[in-house]
Amino acid sequence: MIKVTLPDESVKEVEQGTKVSEVASSIGSGLARNALGGMVDGEVVELNHPITKDCRLKILTFDDDEGKLILRHTASHVMAQAIKRLFPEAKLAIGPAVDDGFYYDMDIDRSFTPEDFGPIEVEMKKIVDADYPIVREVKSKDEAIKFMKDKGEPYKVELIEDLPDGEEISFYTQGEYTDLCAGPHLPSTGMVKVFKLLSVAGAYWRGDEHNKMLQRIYGTAFTKKKDLEDYTNMLEEAKKRDHRKLGKELDLFSIQDEGPGFPFFHPNGMILRNELESFWREEHAKRGYQEIKTPIILNEDLWHRSGHWDHYKDDMYFTKIDGETYAIKPMNCPGSILVYNTHLHSYRELPIRLAELGIVHRHELSGALHGLMRVRCFTQDDAHLFMAPEQVKEEVLKVIDLADYFYKLFGFDYHVELSTRPENSMGTDEQWAKATDDLKDALEATGMDYKINEGDGAFYGPKIDFHLRDSLGRTWQCGTIQLDFQMPERFELVYIGQDGEKHRPVMVHRTILGSIERFIGILTEQFAGAFPVWLSPKQVQIIPITDKHQKYAEEILESVKKAGIRADIDTRNEKMGYKIREAEVQKTPYMIIVGDKEAESGSVSVRERKKGDIGSISLDSFIDMVKEKINSKAID
RNA sequence: GCUGGCGUGGCUCAAUCGGCAGAGCAGCUGAUUUGUAAUCAGCGGGUUGUAGGUUCAAGUCCUAUCGCCAGCUCCA
After folding, report:
1. What count of other Cβ atoms lies within 10 Å of the Cβ of residue A359?
2. Are the CB atoms for A187 and A136 separated by under 8 Å?
3. How far are the Cα atoms of A5, A140, A182, A612 from residue A163, in angstroms, in the given order?
4. Do the bridges between strand A101-107 and strand A463-469 make them parallel or antiparallel, or are there none, so unpaired?
5. What is the average per-residue pLDDT within A384-403?
6. Residue A168: its pLDDT value, please?
7. Is the preceding peptide bond at A351 cis, omega within 30 degrees of 0?
8. Coil vs helix vs strand at A34
9. Among residues A244, A374, A384, A398, which one is catalytic?
10. pLDDT digit string, tens, across residues A158-177
11. Do A509 and A355 contact (CB within 8 A), yes or no?
């Protein structure tokens, strides 16, 4: 007998070789029904897995991320089997489970369209109803290669060839279908009860744009029909929060055919933006930043010196002035460096923090453009910090702290990545190792979780990136902290040390919001357009019930405006309900309704966005309340 | 850039097999003077993204091109 310790610390004695599914049954029939796999001493295993020694066991269900992955991975095999039945000529590539579902990549001459989903789903249903057992077997590398060659699956052969020699290679068979796969899987196809195919897309073989583009079909799977319905409803709801839709509805910005990727900010969007920027300025001034503004167009020669010509040229725009080539800046760093170099600096001044809300232009691929999230012209809330090498850690920690302060203010969840040396980069391995270690040290000192993103650093240095989520859960890089030993050398930056000698400063490039445009996109989706009061383009909508009340409404407007609150009167000849509806649709935080009662008593009737009527109060207390919300930058 | 899908009044969408381009909202005019999410009536508004082609006839079919959407690649 062996001892199995369950998550509640209870211990079950079972026979050697008992399967995970059998343990689940012995715990309870409900758990047995919902079980999708197991976790044995931290390792994910399938339900058929025999337990051979004392261990800790957790039964995985759909509530566990690992359970979801097992179900969806099997679902991807079911889909691939169905597609092979309908299109035997399709060559299989890879088919993993992903966050919200699964996909399978295949190579086939005809292109899949959403019309193919119906027949494929019907075939999948047959496979599920047949409830084929899913059987794992292991082959040697040579056997595996021969097997897939015989089946005419060149992509599988390539995958196997890249596996290390001597390793056992697992295959899973369900009915007539056998796939190369590390698993784990469900014990039978009948357990894939609820699924739906969602979209088709092209995807490069092995994610490399030089390789052939395969066809990818995305789908998702759940254990309960209700969960699938909830998921599709969630997608519908997310569409309503889309900043591109809200940007239009709230008249914040537009992107037009005349300038793909070049957003226009409308008056409402500018109010929000200016509020955000002035707050940004205040917070940076408090922390010892000095603001600068550098030109958008600078001579090509500068970009040769900075390394951008060699490493970034394809993403840059150029123009000619008096026969000379100029570049439209894709980054603010060279300009900032030129400012630094206008003086000789003492160690006493360091760190020098030059901040710039700098407009940069980058030639992003047309297919990559996405509302305000990815554009070809954006404003970085940039800063370049020039410091002595021993100041790096402290300075980086201050930046991390500042980013955290900004994100927390809006209630954002974020995650952090450390990006290391990319292929096409400047400098020596030693410099990169030192810079990467410096950033790692700082991250370790904060104790925050972070993920390593190999090869994704800037061409001049490694970086810490802060990622925020949009309404659909896609993540976008916002803040970044990049450590740079290259540009100080290339531009021969110096400061005079205590010893009277010249020393080379280290440079940190950093943003907090990332791009003002992208950040506004994220903000819009986070709040579904119902911005915190301090950012709302219109903070108070005054609604006179009839035109008799207009005069009193105007007196109120004057007082509210005098208090520094953005307000307006809806004087249109419409019923009150109509005006309220419009203010609600526009997500105006407060409405003041004024009629006979208010005019007589000198009070205001207040309605709060989403909450409805909150009763009558004096104008003064209303103003105090709104100002408190604004000053505290409260989020609802 | 690549793969697939989609472009019809300001907005959201309709138009059967190729057969007279339509509705709601918004806008304008008038009536109505209203108590917490849409008052009523009338009016104006379109070269169907653009350029070609097929056809007696094109929103609809074909070609090219521009843009948008999803994904890939890339990135703040």
Report:
1. 16
2. no
3. 35, 11, 11, 62
4. unpaired
5. 95
6. 82
7. yes
8. helix
9. A384
10. 999 888 887 788 999 999 99
11. no
Whether the CB of A332 is less than 7 Å away from nucleic strand B comes out as: no
Nucleotide closest in space to A470 (CA vs C1'): B76
Give the per-residue pLDDT at A576. 93
pLDDT at A162: 87
Residue A200 pLDDT: 87
> Which residue out of A156, A216, A374, A463 is catalytically annotated?
A463
Measured CA to CA, the distance from residue A101 to residue A95 in angstroms comes to: 11
What count of Cα atoms within 13 Å lies in the side-chain half-sphere of residue A447?
0
Query: Considering only CA atoms, which residue is closest to the C1' of nucleotide B68?
Result: A257
Query: What distance separates the 2 farthest-apart alpha carbons in chain A?
Result: 93
**Which tokens is A15 given?**
């026979």
Q: Give per-residue pLDDT as tens, A206-227.
A: 988 888 889 999 999 999 999 9
Count of H helices and E strands in chain A?
20, 36
pLDDT exceeds cutoff 80 at A35: yes
**Neighbour count for residue A562 (Cβ, 10 Å):** 9
Q: What b/e sequence results for A147-160 when a residue is b if at least 16 CB atoms lie within 10 Å of its CB, and e otherwise?
A: bbeebebebbbebb
A148, A153, A157, A163 alpha-carbon torsion, rounded to 10°: -90
Please say whether the dihedral angle defined by the alpha carbons of residues A569, A573, A575 and A577, taken in this order, is positive or negative: negative
Give the distance, in angstroms, between residue A208 CA and nucleotide B63 C1'.
Answer: 31
Average pLDDT over residues A444-450: 92
Provide the pLDDT for residue A592: 96
- State yes or no: pLDDT of A15 exceeds 90: no
Which of A122-131, A180-189, A362-371, A622-631 is the least confident region?
A180-189
pLDDT tens per residue, range A366-390: 999 999 999 999 999 999 999 999 9
Per the prediction, chain A carries an average pLDDT of 92
Nucleotide with smallest C1' distance to residue A482 CA? B76
Are A66 and A30 in contact, with CB atoms under 8 Å apart? no
Give me the pLDDT at residue A530, please: 96
Angle, CA A204 vertex, CA A414 and CA A73 arms, to 5° = 65
For residues A35 and A20, the answer to whether their CB atoms sit within 8 Å is: yes
pLDDT at A504: 96
- Whether A290 and A296 have beta carbons less than 8 Å apart is answered as no
**Residue A263 C-beta-side C-alpha neighbours within 13 Å:** 30
A238 touches strand B (CB under 7 A): no
Three-point CA angle A451, A456, A462, nearest 5°: 85
Would you call A316 helix, strand, or coil by DSSP?
Answer: coil
Average pLDDT of span A499-505: 96
Which pair of structure tokens corresponds to residue A89?
């000529």
A605 touches strand B (CB under 7 A): yes
Query: Is the separation of the CB atoms in A442 and A400 below 8 Å?
Result: yes
Reading phi first (left if > 0) and then psi (alpha if -120 to 50, else beta), residue A307 is in left
